[in-house]
Design goal:
The protein is α/β, with parallel strands linked by helices. It has 14 helices and nine strands. The chain is globular and about 55 Å long.
């Protein structure tokens, strides 16, 4: 597809309703915020000394985003577990939150059982009616079982609002994060207004997501973020991989300044296909802001293309939701450019089928 302004053609290529789900991100966030903050935790859950979140893929980048966004405000150690086993320090003073949109993720259930064996407290966030949700209920564990009515396509990466705000709601309810209801609702309202400017009916000339999709087509993007946006950077790369079926990498300032700048000479195709996509924010620290401009200079001097995305939200929470809104629409439009069904994940499905045979 060449014309992203052909609304009827786009809808015809989207039988699962990814476009509809993408436009409901703010609704997902609002529903999850209101519902997750109503989950009741036993008092001893509020006395744990660390929190570990077990999650994979689209159910991992959301708590990772929360950890980055509120890194300076979460009052207990907060770690993401991407394995079959929880970290060795997990014990009766730990809370392990199982994060699985589908509620069927093999690694997450294994980590949960490992946590129970270590005497840890457990909780979960997942789709209602799921197998892990039933297991948690049988364990008498607190669990947020959401009805994903604002994600008709059903794919976890297209419904990030549920887990994103679900995890923020849990941390607030547990007393590990102080965040005002007003700030969350204002950020959601900002994301809703921003998303209206990216809808398919908005022509390419005025639509940042369509413009970015066209710019990124046939490129190898390095998604460059820092500080509170690091988790989002991982999310965008994941969405590009799964929705647009295109390679991408998340990179972080200032970490990349210590090695990656020397790795841009070869292969020669780097100078043809690579693009450094810098997400800029007025909320970054002064030290990080300086590094972005110098990094851009070094990259361009090595004949690698760059592009800046300047987030406009008034604060960090708003900018994270703004960034998610942009990335979700952009990757949908990228799938359209490649004439792909954006919901399909044939190779992941193949892998899971082969794994089941063993």
């Amino acid at each position: 597809m060449q014309n992203l302004d052909d609304v009827q053609a786009i809808k015809a290529k989207d039988p699962s309703g990814v476009l509809g789900s993408t436009g409901m991100f703010a609704d997902q966030c609002k529903q999850a915020w209101e519902e997750s903050t109503q989950v009741v935790f036993p008092e001893d859950y509020k006395n744990v000394k660390n929190v570990v979140v077990a999650g994979m893929g689209g159910s991992r980048f959301t708590p990772k985003t929360v950890g980055s966004l509120f890194r300076k405000h979460i009052t207990v150690p907060y770690e993401i577990c991407e394995d079959y086993k929880v970290p060795g320090y997990v014990n009766h003073d730990s809370l392990v939150i199982l994060s699985s949109y589908s509620g069927s993720t093999e690694e997450v259930l294994s980590a949960g059982k490992d946590a129970v064996g270590k005497g840890a407290k457990i909780a979960g966030i997942m789709h209602a009616g799921s197998s892990i949700g039933k297991w948690l209920t049988d364990q008498n564990a607190p669990v947020y079982l959401f009805d994903a009515k604002f994600n008709p396509c059903g794919q976890p990466r297209i419904g990030p609002g549920y887990l994103l705000m679900g995890h923020v709601g849990f941390l607030k309810t547990l007393g590990f994060l102080s965040v005002e209801d007003k700030d969350i609702l204002e950020a959601i309202a900002f994301a809703r207004e921003f998303g209206n400017r990216l809808k398919v009916e908005v022509l390419e000339v005025d639509n940042l997501a369509k413009q970015l999709a066209i710019f990124l087509k046939d490129k190898h993007p390095f998604i460059v973020t820092a500080e509170f946006l690091k988790g989002f950077g991982n999310a965008f790369a994941n969405q590009i991989n799964e929705t647009a079926k295109m390679i991408s990498d998340p990179r972080y300032i200032s970490e990349l300044n210590h090695h990656m700048l020397e790795g841009l000479q070869y292969p020669e195709t780097m100078h043809q296909n690579a693009i450094f996509l810098f997400f800029l924010s007025h909320c970054y620290s002064e030290a990080i802001t300086k590094r972005f401009s110098i990094t851009k200079d070094v990259v361009e001097k090595q004949r690698v293309a760059t592009k800046n995305i300047e987030l406009t939200g008034p604060n960090k929470i708003s900018q994270v939701l703004e960034a998610f809104t942009l990335s979700s629409f952009t990757t949908f439009y990228m799938a359209m450019l490649y004439d792909l069904d954006p919901v399909a994940i044939p190779w992941v499905d193949y892998f899971k089928a082969e794994l089941a045979k063993t």
